Structure formats: C-alpha cells, structure tokens
Amino acid sequence: MYKTLVAVFVLFFSVVPAFAKPHDVYPVSCDVLWSAVKDTLENPKDYSVLGMSDSQEKAAFAVVGELTPHTDTVTLTDEGSGCAMDLKIVQNGSDNSDERGFRKRLNKSLAKMQTEKPAKPAAAPGQE
Question: Domain spanning 20-114: which CATH class is it, in words?
C-alpha cells in the first residue's frame, strides 16, 4: 500500500510540469510590448506598481481591490521573431479573472499603440 502511494505521488509530480502554460509570444518587438505593459500598469484603478525595470523589461505589481493582495510579475524576453511574455498572477480560487483582465487590457493597449503609429511627415513644399 505504501509503495503504491509513493509511486502515485512520484508519477503525479513528474507529470505536473507537462501542464505548465507556455509563454505568450507576441509578434511585435519587446520595446513595443513593454510600452503596452507600462501603459496597462499605469492605470491606478486596476494596478499598483511595486517595482519596474526598463532595462530588464520586468515589473512587479498588485491588483487593486484584491482581498488578499499578492505580488504579481510580468517579464518580457526576446524570442527572435517576437517577444515572449511570462505573466505570473497569484489568485485565490479557480477563477483567473485577474489574469484574463490583464491580458485583455494589454491587448487593448497594444492595439491602441499600433493604431496610433505616427503618420509619415508631409513633404516640405518643393520636395516630393
């Protein structure tokens, strides 16, 4: 009985990493994605920034309104063809609404930034 129980635990803990979620890879540069992350975290109604490093493209924050505040993190790494985001949000219970909310706000900020790209400057008179 004891050997069977130990075997089940060993099997369980060796399989758990297979269920780990992969990083989100966005098809934009990390500079663009980092600007969107900072824009998302700048909303004081949603997030309280605890620390931020522009050089490492990493931020620690807390979700405003949580009954038990936790330190959450977001880290960006260059993946060559895009930028990988590692998002770790701690939340009690099975609902992941804080994580979904962050991703939704980030995608909205990223879309806003991509539509606000500066237009090409008009040619000066006499130049074409």
Answer: alpha beta
